[in-house]
């Protein structure tokens, strides 16, 4: 068709086109090489979560973005949903008092899908597969952002409930997790419990609970927010951000957060402003450090101190 053209791969595109922003949406194992070349080609970058495959590479990516003076973002779009923004404001204003404990859980009806179809790279740990990376990265980012402080130590367990699938194309052996549990502690001393179970025959969805010295908060399925300050739980009103009427699934499920994030990226690049909600490479590196500690904890069956590295507090 007139006006359309094909490029022979992503390296060719970066070498031949003048781009303002490169969006990296490959499997995590490829994030490092793609992001580094995009930065070195002069592009600002939006990289899919998690930022990389390990904290050594994410730290290198962070340093490179600073060296070449390019803006670098991570696709933690759930920060931008109105209900999560409301929680952030409540914690900033200390409406719940000092947070003492957070419980964040999710269970899903994934058994039939896992038992009856191939997962591809998502089944392989070495390529960044598994639900800790896919789902846990979002959860850890939200927790770090909400609390505005680091997670200091974790004890984690990764499980593969459905370790293989035999289809027409042969046997797929899986080592990536489809369920995980962790407990940990924030720098302030607040405790943390996270549990995700994907391969349920029937799951119950998401539940977030925050316990503070003044009150308790509950969020159900990112749709319903309630608080108690000693009495009954009362609903918290959330200002809606409705999607266009003609938008269909699956795009409609991502519009609420993703549109606002993309709009903020545009403003960042054109007006040189940065929203406090914008997830940047420093945030992605912090999340990766926590994910690495969880994986190491599961492997060694021990509690692990999270090592963010010496560069994390530097200007980005």
Question: How does this structure look, described?
Answer:
The protein folds into 2 domains: 10-76 and 260-279, Rossmann fold (3-Layer(aba) Sandwich), CATH 3.40.50.720; 82-240, Dihydrodipicolinate Reductase, domain 2. The N and C termini lie far apart (42 Å). Strand 12 and strand 13 form a beta hairpin. It has helices at residues 10-16, 31-40, 55-67, 82-92, 111-116, 131-147, 251-271, 281-300; strands spanning 21-24, 44-47, 72-74, 99-107, 151-159, 164-167, 170-173, 179-186, 191-197, 205-212, 216-220, 224-228, 234-235, 304-305. The strands form 3 sheets. A 9-stranded mixed sheet has the order 13-12-11-10-4-9-8-5-14. The chain has a 3-stranded parallel sheet with strand order 1-2-3. The chain has a two-stranded antiparallel ribbon with strand order 6-7. It contains 8 helices and 14 strands.
Low-confidence stretches: none
Q: What is the helix content? A: 25-40%
Structural class comes to alpha+beta
What radius of gyration results from the CA coordinates?
20 Å
Shape: globular
The number of helices is: 8
Count the beta strands.
Answer: 14
Overall tally of domains: 2
Strand content: 15-25%
Topology order in helix (H) and strand (E) letters = HEHEHEHEHHEEEEEEEEEHHE
The CATH architecture of the largest domain:
2-Layer Sandwich
Q: Could you tell me the mean pLDDT?
A: 94
Our measurement of the CA-to-CA distance between the termini, rounded to an integer number of angstroms, reads 42 Å
Strand order of the largest sheet: 13-12-11-10-4-9-8-5-14
